[in-house]
Design a protein that fits this description.
- The protein has about 300 residues and is an all-alpha fold.
- It has one domain.
- Helices cover about 75% and strands about 0% of the residues.
- It has 13 helices and no strands.
- Helix 9 (about 180-195) packs across helix 10 (about 210-240).
- The longest helix has 29 residues, at about 210-240.
- The protein is globular and about 50 Å long.
Length: about 300
Amino acid sequence: MKNILYLLIATATWGLNFFLAKVMMESSSAIVAGFWRYVIAVLVLGLLLWGKLPTWREIRQQSKALILVGVGGIFVFNYCFFVGLEHTSAINAALIMSLNPALTLILNRIFYKSPISNWHIVGILIALLGVTLLITKGQMGNIGAFKMGSGDIYLWLANLAFAFYHLGVKQYGSRMQNLQFTFFITVVCCFCFLLIIQPFTWSTIWDYPAIFWYAALGMGGPGTALAYFSWNRGVAGMGIGKAAIFMNTVPLFTSIFAVLFGTTLAYYHLWSGLLILLGLVVIQLQQLQYLPGSKHT
């Protein structure tokens, strides 16, 4: 139950990030928004780690893993996510990112030979049906209007990068304390943004409106530091295959936050939410061996 809570905390904050990212990019570029998100995340995680940092020898021993996950998983994902979000619609973005659990399972199967049970597939399909119902607003025929644009391509790359991030957490995440691991891959991501950001003077900081900084604090604190810490804990405790299905709750939380921001709740929100939750229940029943022929892996 604790692992489920960690995963839901992460996906809830990521659902909010869709709105916060849009707010930040109203007054800045995607690269600038990504940079300040991770500057704040580094500061938050650094405060939490104050006095608990590993030795330089431990950092150096894990440096290759930290760079690999920080660059290949976190930075590439965020770069493609921010750029893609500038050039595509929310329905396209939600549909593409909702396929991450299936992509993660496939890569997990390819690289680690992890089995995919029939019940696992059933759970994914049920949850994906709920996501599709949500993003089509209850009109399944709308799925035919989906078109691939430049922003969609970036989001597919972001999706692939996040799937590889899951593999990196599985491979390297246990070699260091979770908070330490999260901090250092966040530092790597922040440094990558710093390398590609256009030169600017610190005086330009004051040109951004207050709402930009409120959104940046939300993305950098709960939306990044807390989210990745919680997600890593959940993945470590539950395993990639079972944890990845929780990515399907991101569109659900996005819908909930949309209501809080003034959007009217429709009937399809309820039905899509029930389908997503049903898919998660099927996966958890598989994990807990409540279903005939299931195996605890």
